[in-house]
Design goal:
15% strand, 334 residues, homodimer, Rossmann fold, 3 domains, 12 strands, 13 helices
Amino acid sequence: MDVAVIGLGLIGGSVLRALASTGHRVLGYDADPATRATARTAAAQAPADGRWQVARTVRDAVARAELVVIAVPLPAVAGVLDELASAGYTGLVTDVTSIKGPVQALVDRHLRVGSDRLAGFVGGHPMAGRETSGFGAADPSLFTGCAWVLCLEPGSTSLADWLEVAELITRLNARVVPAVADEHDRAVAAVSHVPHLMASALAAVAADDPLAGTLGAGSFRDGTRVAATRPDLVAAMCGGNAAAVGPALDAVLDALVRARAALDGPDPIDGLRTWLEPGSAARLAWPPRGGTPVELPAESDALLRLGRAGGWVTRVADDRRTVTAVRPAHRDPA
Amino acid sequence: MDVAVIGLGLIGGSVLRALASTGHRVLGYDADPATRATARTAAAQAPADGRWQVARTVRDAVARAELVVIAVPLPAVAGVLDELASAGYTGLVTDVTSIKGPVQALVDRHLRVGSDRLAGFVGGHPMAGRETSGFGAADPSLFTGCAWVLCLEPGSTSLADWLEVAELITRLNARVVPAVADEHDRAVAAVSHVPHLMASALAAVAADDPLAGTLGAGSFRDGTRVAATRPDLVAAMCGGNAAAVGPALDAVLDALVRARAALDGPDPIDGLRTWLEPGSAARLAWPPRGGTPVELPAESDALLRLGRAGGWVTRVADDRRTVTAVRPAHRDPA
């Protein structure tokens, strides 16, 4: 398949390398000339079976593409969509942005206007962050075993398009998770955006006491690790998903207010023990382990039910009529 | 020095091995016969310069001791203190329990009654938790570089006793942090106890949505790691320190409520960026890096000021008149 990857940071660069190493013809592009030069040098050193090329413009990159992967930060997505529209691109488009509702809205506004044939869009999000960034950190095996959401919007995403992209992503050894954009945005609010806010609150409050900073050990180190992320990136991620992050943060605040009441109660130790049990059981059961793979019909309802149950797709059948699906196995706390 | 270590779990076992390897004569004891047998077997296999012995009773363990290290969980501390009192023990006592105010209160009630000569007590807390537990996980190098609080209670701790214990602990390569019990309990509430409660809240809330569990990645894994700790242990730790954990949790709740308001504000991205900056700067400046070592007079006020400033002691001079102290170096965020 001819694929264009627009944006060659950690994720885009890793997608480029992973797709090239699975036999696709890949053209990359990045708005930053230095990044393009780095990628070109790396391409010249790549083995023959994992080679890609670097284009000088978005238009050049997508000229022959059947699939475009948009791997730029959210604020730059609209500009790329405009370039695709002005290039008359009508193939498949996916993205790797961490919020899906807003991207879907941008696609409706910027890509699907003024062209006779419409490009097909399947929103995506690989859950594969890392401390490192930039093309230099790109790793073709970054997605092995990682959850990769592909949005299946009723009335918007074509099932055929979804299966086409899903087929490609499963070959990167990712777990393809079908979801609608709203479900995705609510879930990442709970497991990614709220954790960033909590880490920041914890780090800021402890900073008021130098003694506390000196006594911080494992629980503080891990609980605050992502607080070191650049504030503008976290603000864009959480603020761009404010409608979902608000209620997710409320749920955590409610739980902590109950812990606070237990601390003031007649028996804080007993009250907290009861309060702590659900979180302990949940963490012992996480991450979900897959049960026995089953064949599922490749239909929207079945796929979305699978995603809601915490399941994922590991393979799309060649005839695109079924998928191999894995549901989380029930696991008793150790 | 003749030292008895009562309680041979991860911390007690590591203290035993670390002290034995620095040349002390160490006798260990554990209430659990199986743990005593494990420790005896390990003693037989230990090199000649790191050998210790295992006693059959607390009384036997402390009969010749100049220092007793109490390394049992908080609920068992009173019983050990009673045994020391009934054995007529009048040497030095320290402990490794994670809350210091309540232990000081137990010492006043259980150890310092009914004996003509009083045992000297210096409360301690090495910040060296680990996932593993039990004597089998004990490691003589566990304390290298770790902060180890030694309490210096005005009107209660003898400075000579403090310096004696501090001298011993610095030789385990730990950073000895002088503090009063209340300061310690407030600091660990912020950097250890509240992080445990937050991890639990995060894990419990995400468990409501199977999709969220499947999408959880690095920020969720790290932000919830300590939620898997046994609820009874966390409840004892946080509930036993309720007076300090309550206000520390309030401070974090206040910060999160301000983040919540930013999410509802006219520009969530801009509002959150401002809100995130202190936490990001704080985390980038953590852990504190030591500045140039200086000599300080070995006096209570100077030592406590050092601890409040986030500093620590690395050496006690042979004449016990000065200590080598390190204050955190100012560090610009990267």
